[in-house]
């Protein structure tokens, strides 16, 4: 399973790279705004910086919602760096644009997926990734992980090459369950990735080992 980090924060991205387990990055307009990145030039240069840090796919989201606008923005983003994946919302014009990009060999991530039908549509249009939002479904009392299961099963039934990118993954149990269900990728904040390190018995065991070693060796 690939690990993507869901942030536009360069320090967090660098820390995940240094851990040696990062396969890519996802961003969205809210995450860019959180870092105070304003204006097209600043946004483009920030994506370039991310691509220079990470050796893997970097999802950069279009803002346009009309077909021509999505194509224009997507092509400009794709030209920035070979690692860029154009992130397109699950709307009618977005599906048409995904078809166009896939025929041009431009990688896409169809975002804001909340049903299996939406995922199927994006896969048929040739999306490289679909992003079902696990946490946001849980937020409204639905079952985000059940959606991951459905999409993984459907793609496997028909051999779709589209990868299931479990998004809005908020905590360690989410990530582990996505792995059990066979999601190709998870994207989550740095805290979820580093959360995988933790167990109190690991800390306790290490403290005992070091104390016993010190007793004999000083
Ligand atoms: C997906 O690519 C989104 O950026 C993201 O995972 C949304 O997560 P959130 O629901 O925690 O904001």
TrEMBL record:
Family affiliation: Belongs to the transaldolase family. Type 3B subfamily.
Function of the molecule: Transaldolase is important for the balance of metabolites in the pentose-phosphate pathway.
PANTHER family: FRUCTOSE-6-PHOSPHATE ALDOLASE 1-RELATED, TRANSALDOLASE
Protein name: Probable transaldolase
Record's catalysed reaction(s): D-sedoheptulose 7-phosphate + D-glyceraldehyde 3-phosphate = D-erythrose 4-phosphate + beta-D-fructose 6-phosphate
Keywords recorded for this protein, A-Z: Cytoplasm, Pentose shunt, Schiff base, Transferase
SUPFAM superfamilies linked to this entry: Aldolase (SSF51569)
Active site residues of this protein: 87
Its EC number(s): 2.2.1.2
Gene3D superfamilies to which the protein is assigned, alphabetical: Aldolase class I
Major localization listed first in the record, in broad terms: cytoplasm
Enzyme class: transferase
InterPro entries: Aldolase_TIM (IPR013785), TAL/FSA (IPR001585), Transaldolase_3B (IPR022999), Transaldolase_3B/F6P_aldolase (IPR004731), Transaldolase_AS (IPR018225), TSA/FSA_arc/bac (IPR033919)
The organism of origin for this protein: Hymenobacter duratus
Compartment(s): Cytoplasm
Pathway: Carbohydrate degradation; pentose phosphate pathway; D-glyceraldehyde 3-phosphate and beta-D-fructose 6-phosphate from D-ribose 5-phosphate and D-xylulose 5-phosphate (non-oxidative stage): step 2/3
């Amino acid at each position: 399973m690939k690990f993507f980090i869901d942030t536009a924060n360069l320090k967090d991205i660098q820390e995940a790279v240094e851990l040696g387990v990062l396969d890519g990055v996802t961003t969205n307009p809210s995450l860019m705004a959180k870092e105070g990145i304003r204006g097209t030039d600043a946004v483009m240069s920030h994506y370039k910086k991310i691509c220079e840090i990470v050796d893997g796919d970097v999802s950069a989201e279009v803002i346009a919602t009309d077909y021509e606008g999505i194509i224009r923005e997507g092509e400009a983003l794709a030209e920035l760096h070979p690692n860029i994946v154009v992130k397109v919302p699950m709307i009618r014009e977005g599906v048409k644009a995904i078809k166009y990009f896939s025929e041009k060999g431009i990688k896409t991530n169809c975002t804001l997926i909340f049903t299996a039908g939406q995922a199927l549509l994006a896969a048929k249009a040739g999306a490289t990734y679909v992003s079902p939002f696990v946490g946001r479904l849980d937020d409204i009392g639905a079952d985000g992980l059940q959606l991951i299961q459905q999409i993984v099963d459907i793609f496997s039934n028909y051999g779709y090459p589209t990868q299931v990118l479990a998004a809005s993954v908020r905590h360690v149990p989410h990530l582990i369950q996505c792995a059990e269900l066979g999601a190709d990728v998870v994207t989550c904040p740095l805290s979820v990735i580093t959360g995988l390190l933790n167990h109190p018995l690991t800390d306790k065991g290490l403290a005992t080992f070091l104390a016993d070693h010190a007793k004999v060796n000083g």
